Amino acid sequence: MKIFGIFGDPIEHSLSPAMQSSAFRALGLDACYHAFRIPPGRLEDAILGASAMDFGGLNLTVPLKEKALEIDALQPDELALAIGAVNTISFGQNQRMTGHNTDGTGALLALEKAGTVVKGSKVLLMGAGGAARAIAYTLMQEGAEISISNRNIRRAQELAAFVGGLGFGLEELEKLVPQADIIINATTVGMKDEDGRLFDGRLLHSRQAVFDIIYNRQTELLLDARAAGALAIDGVMMLVYQGAKALEIWTGKKAPVAVMEKAVREGLKDVLAAEEGHA
Ligand code: NAP
To answer: Secondary structure of 58-103 in the HEC alphabet?
Structure first.
């Protein structure tokens, strides 16, 4: 049996084990997938250990994605190097380990499968952290015109310079939102009930697509988008497609996306029920 896993810290609420295990079952593979809590200081040991134990593949999540680039034994591919983060590791012959990044592809596929045309669109990306960087780079390659708005304006300007776009602070959102074709939230704002909004939802209109990459709840941004008649896309399919791409890298097989989506949506219901139980 091949072992796969995800490393992160914290990791208890990861939906990847349910999602990837369901895919392995559907494909009839003799494989299992587990979550491991690995603090950043133990990442190198843990990856070398997984290689020694002949793991089939790994995912990395917060706070390890950028840290992986510091590990000499891990060779990032061109995309992971450009993005500056690794979320998937494959193990090849002679202990060769390659770092990949599937977050940007996950976001692009989520947008496209929802019916959005990215090429030539004016994209307003809120956030300049790890996920924003992967999305900005991938959408730039796809031919989008990108503006980036972030709380820390310097980070917005740096990321914008990297992808050939423009960077702004959050106070410019009032001006930027009405002009955009696609609005993406890649900040953490909206993960918690009490987070509220980054801008007044009445600025949205029905010819826009609004993509919130948060997947643990329906955010105020998505509610505002639906109220405005815009296309509202949540983060579930990005999670599913980044996992599907990782599975395809490891196995060379086509990922059973519908099965993986079902596992994630069921896992989310369990997380919500557990949270309500604690409330
Ligand atoms: P990160 O690197 O820590 O970046 C966090 C971003 O949020 C930064 O731009 C930060 O702005 C901004 N931010 C944090 N608190 C804020 C506040 N109070 N007001 C305004 N902006 C604030 O995190 P990440 O890894 O990119 O993840 C970002 C989000 O994407 C998370 O919700 C994560 O769950 C989600 N995500 C989803 C998927 C998926 O598959 N659907 C994949 C990856 C991530 P500053 O630069 O000013 O600090």
So the answer is: EEECCCCCCHHHHCCCEEECHHHHHHCCCCEEEECHHHCEEEECCH
Q: Which residues line ligand 1 (CB under 6 A)?
A: 62, 103, 106, 127-132, 150-152, 155, 186-189, 191, 213-215, 235, 238-239, 242
∠ CA 159-165-170, nearest 5°, is: 70
Alpha-carbon distance of 231 to 255, in angstroms, equals 26
Q: Identify the DSSP state of 54.
A: T
Question: Which active-site residues does the annotation give?
Answer: 65
* Rounded Cα distance, 222 and 216, in Å: 12
Res 272 pLDDT > 80: no
Q: Kindly give the distance from the C-alpha atom of residue 63 to the centroid of ligand 1, in angstroms, as a whole number.
A: 12
**pTM for this one?**
0.95
Q: What CA–CA distances, in Å, run from 184 to 63, 64, 107, 153?
A: 22, 24, 10, 17
**Element containing residue 229 per DSSP (H, E):** none
106-116 per-position pLDDT tens digit: 999 999 999 99
Please identify which residue in the block is written with the tokens 């219901």. Answer: 269
Nearest atom in ligand 1 to 151's CA: 47
Angle at 226 between CA 224 and CA 229, to 5 degrees: 110
User: Quick one: which of 115, 102, 199, 210 has its CA closest to 151?
Assistant: 199
Nearest-angstrom CA–CA distance, 73 and 35: 22
Given a cut of 90, whether residue 279 has pLDDT beyond it is: no
Q: What is the pLDDT of residues 4-35, one digit of tens each?
A: 999 999 999 899 999 999 999 999 999 999 99
